[in-house]
């Protein structure tokens, strides 16, 4: 079974940047559309960015122009470059297939944006 491990989160000031990584093991995800989800305290988990097997991308309006999703097929990995971070981006970030979730959730990586 595919396991997903997220990394790269941390504490950053507003306007700062972070790059998140999602490493998949136990299976190939090259043929899957993948996405980054986030869940803020007290809120539903939401899809913020996705990338198809062909490399086409989509973004939630809240992050459009600030976040960039990418993938490296040879590494079976997906990335999320986050720029111009805002306090409202604070959440635990997860990766999975998108827009439908097919794998078990990993532990996620915490992103905190605060002065």
Round the mean pLDDT to the nearest integer and report it.
Answer: 97
- State the total count of DSSP E strands: 10
Q: Kindly report the spatial arrangement of strands forming the biggest sheet.
A: 2-10-9-4-5-6
- Structural class of the helix and strand makeup? mainly beta
Radius of gyration: 13 Å
Give the helix proportion (percent range).
under 10%
Which regions contain 5 or more consecutive residues with pLDDT less than 50? none
Percent of residues in beta strands = over 45%
Please explain how this structure is put together:
The protein has 115 residues and is mainly β. The chain has strands spanning 3-7, 10-12, 18-25, 34-39, 46-51, 57-59, 67-72, 77-82, 91-97, 109-113. The protein has a six-stranded mixed sheet, with no helix packed on it. A four-stranded antiparallel sheet has the order 1-3-8-7, with no helix packed on it. The N and C termini lie far apart (40 Å). The model has no long low-confidence stretch (mean pLDDT 97).
């Amino acid at each position: 079974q595919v396991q997903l491990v997220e990394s790269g989160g941390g504490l950053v000031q507003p306007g700062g940047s972070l790059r998140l990584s999602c490493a998949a093991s136990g299976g190939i995800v090259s043929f899957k559309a993948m996405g980054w989800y986030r869940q803020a305290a007290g809120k539903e988990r939401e899809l913020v960015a996705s990338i198809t097997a062909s490399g086409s991308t989509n973004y939630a309006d809240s992050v459009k122009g600030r976040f960039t999703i990418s993938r490296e097929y040879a590494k079976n990995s997906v990335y999320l470059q986050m720029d111009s971070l805002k306090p409202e981006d604070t959440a635990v970030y997860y990766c999975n297939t998108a827009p439908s979730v097919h794998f078990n959730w990993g532990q996620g990586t915490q992103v905190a944006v605060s002065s």
